[in-house]
Amino acid sequence: MASKIELNNLTFYYGNFMALKDVNMNIVGNAITALIGPSGCGKSTLLRTINRTNELIDGTRLEGKVLIDGKDIYDAQIDIIELRKKVGMVFQRPNCFPLSVYDNVAYGPVVHGTKKKAELDKIVEESLIATWLWDDLKDKLKRSALSLSLDYQQRLCIARVLAIGSEIILLDEPCSALDPITTLRIEELLVSLKENYTIVIVTHNMQQAARVSDYSGYMLLGELVEFNQTSKIFTSPKDKRTEDYITGRFG
Amino acid sequence: MKYNERLIQSGLLITAFSTIAILILIGVFILKEGLPVILKVGIKDFICGVNWSPIEEQFGIFPMIMGSIWITAGALLFSLPLSLACAIYLAEFSTPKIGKILKPTIELLAGIPSVVYGFMGMVILFPLIRNYLGGPGPCILAASIILGIMILPTITSISIDSLQAVPYSYREGSLALGATRWQTVKMVVLPAARSGIIAGIILGVGRAVGETMAVIMIAGNAVIIPDSILDPVRTLTTNIALEMNFATGEHRQALFATGIVLFIVIMLLNIIANLIAKRKVITK
Q1: Edge-to-edge strand list for the sheet holding A17-28
Q2: Is position A251 within any domain?
Q3: What separation, in Å, do the N-terminal and C-terminal C-alpha atoms of chain B show?
Q4: A190 found inside a domain
Q5: C-alpha distances in angstroms, B126 versus B139, B232, B234?
Q6: Residue range A41-56: mean pLDDT, rounded
Q7: CB contact, 8 Å: B173 with chain A?
Q8: Cβ of B95 under 8 Å from any chain A Cβ?
Q9: H and E: helices and strands count for chain B
């Protein structure tokens, strides 16, 4: 299968600290790829190189290449705003803006120049339907997003990403603030979305990776130790270190 | 040891409450001195009366109220764009290095004695206004510009604080959606910091209403209801400062009564600012 995202010899530094070491990875489109590993292993850093949000931090440096649809996204010609439109991101804690539900979802399209109310209404409705929020929220669009429960807020954050027409959705431990039942709902949602999107999820919950993902990568100390189909990673890991982590002997 | 502890605690308590006692004492004192004349003239005639001539026992402070409103509004008009631009730049765009130079400099403005501001107004603004706009110089415009500069540090530093209190995750979320930094500031950060900024503006207004020395020097002090920004005016504060020296009897009481009005206005402004600032915490 053709890969949507390609990481070639990717090395990343925060100041002098090497957070990613020579990572090579081909992420397939219309599938869920999970990155697992202990805290501080570089999974979030890896995720953030894909939409260049790492650059918001001072003193970072990147070597190697990140290709999306075959194009180097660190090329000087790349429009970073277009890139971030194409590669949406959902964070660890829901970060809904202190605006209404409607304005949260419409935020991206407005920022990117959609002005017509009818068009915005349609985008908001579609995004909320896709994230299973429409039925519950269609009468509460004017309510502050911050008054919603965390699980709704997180789904609203996903809706916000869908609204800008992203093709790739990056999720950085999206369920760590949620309880098991609402976590399950988000997971089901992700599975339903993979038909149309390429999803990369960082999680330190191995069961979650096993439940939702098609491919898994195990990271340790900045290295991608093993990357394969999830079923293979969890049943017959090739690397001893992966096995130790998965069987719970480490991490 | 335990005894000592209790002694210190109650000592601190008494000291802390003594500030409230001072506030109450001042309040009671000016009420006692000023209230009789308000009751005699009538609240409505005192506040809405347009005639202030102590010799004829006419005590209407409406011209002074208008003077205060005009000058304060002008100061706000002048100061708001400057201080907001300053705050947004410092909180959102400047490098830490520039911030380290600019922020203390702006705060230094608050440390300049008001008489110096008045002096600068007389020396610099009067000739400019005389030459380019006409009139003798002392007027609403001059006072507004100077007061605008004086309240700049108040509004700026409170605005910076409330902008910086906006969680980083909002900015990150917005940038990750492909918004530019200015879009992020305009659409997410400013609305989130709104109540703090409004509280800062209200405190700035309080400062402008209460300022006396600089205003005496540059506002012209004529007891008239102005109809142009080049008219000289007298404010509530300057009215007291100008006449207290020689006032006796009812005249003196009327000045204290002016003080009551000021006291109430400033208290209200501060209470509103506090309430608005508190609301911010709840919504977060």
Answers
A1: A17-28, A3-14, A60-68, A71-72
A2: no
A3: 42
A4: yes
A5: 9, 12, 17
A6: 91
A7: yes
A8: no
A9: 13, 2
For residue range A8-41, what is the model confidence (pLDDT) as tens digits?
999 999 999 999 999 999 999 999 999 999 888 8
Contacts of A154 in chain B (CB under 8 A): none
The reply to whether A52 touches chain B by the CB within 8 Å rule is: no
Q: Can you give the C-alpha Rg of chain B in angstroms?
A: 22
User: Which pair of tokens denotes residue A236?
Assistant: 């017959």
The residue extents of the domains of chain B are 2-46, 62-283
Topology given in CATH for the domain delimited by B62-283: MetI-like fold (1.10.3720)
B113-142: pLDDT as tens digits: 999 999 999 999 999 999 999 888 899 999
Q: What is the dihedral of CA A186, A188, A189, A195, to 10 degrees?
A: 140
Quote the number of domains for chain A.
1
* Mean pLDDT over the full length of chain A: 92
Pick the closest to residue B222 from B159, B279, B148, B140 (CA basis). B140
Q: Which amino acid is at B86?
A: C
CB distance A103 to A124 below 8 Å:
no
**Tell me, what amino acid is at B263?**
F
Distance CA A107, CA A54 (A): 22
Q: Rounded to an integer, what distance in angstroms lies between the CA atom of residue B142 and that of residue B128?
A: 10
A160 vs B contacts (CB less than 8 Å): 173, 177
Tokens read off for B89: 């730049």
